[in-house]
Amino acid sequence: MNTVYLNGEFLPAEEAKVSVFDRGFLFGDSVYEVIPFYQGVGFRLQAHLDRLNHSLRAVRIKNEQHWEEILESLVARNGGGNLSVYLQVTRGSAGKRSHAYDDSLEPTVFACCTPIKDVWKAGVDSVVPLKAIVTEDLRWHRCDIKSTCLLPNILVLQQAKDEGAQEALFSRNDKLTEGSACNLFLVKRGVIYTPKRSSEILGGITRELILELADKHAIQFQEVDIDYQQLLVADEVWVSSSTRGIVPVIEVDGHKIGKGQSGPVWHKMFELFADFQRKLMTGL
Prior knowledge:
alpha+beta; D-amino Acid Aminotransferase, Chain A, domain 1; D-amino Acid Aminotransferase, Chain A, domain 2; 2 domains; nine-stranded mixed sheet; six-stranded antiparallel sheet; 8 helices; 29% helix; 29% strand
């Protein structure tokens, strides 16, 4: 996993260098994607690239790369197989620190790989349920842009750890939005609920997969506004992300969720998700 991509070159990670005047470093003026590759093939690659293109357009960073070619070559150079690709695109460097910029800047493009956790191989018993806190959502109002400006996410996650929890859930105008780096689900009377898509949450690719699997297997779900009290009286709460899969939350702000253990709907969805991943990873 030692080969990275930087501005047109594939090179050892220790040789990759970025200017100290890069706007991604100085201002967080950049966007990113995390894309799973199973057996060397990008999972829902076009959906990830569509989201990347949306972010680039929204912040007006040039988009003139052959993304699929770059990513597939990087994965192959790192041995192929089941890898997660981190891709970051900054506005570039002007050779000085200045808030203003012009369209002459050439973006900095960086990508690297890490192994994907085999959720299906580890099995349901390996999943450790989480405790979470709810905190005010102090982020900007364009959370649909996958920006690297993640300081609020970092601070609330550390706050959660300081309080003996492992995840933080954001609340804005008395409505739950998402977690520090994950989407949110709850279950009540067998129905799955998740906050509806808006500019205030990031539309996760894993989130969409969960809803598709639920629909395919006749498990009811709704995309709705969710408030704090609905969260506390839910039968089950989960979070999802491409790196963690689906993880149950058994406590929020010290309040036990349901029976204080992973619930039956989560178990069913975990089995469906794990089986889906197994087929992608093994082809069987």
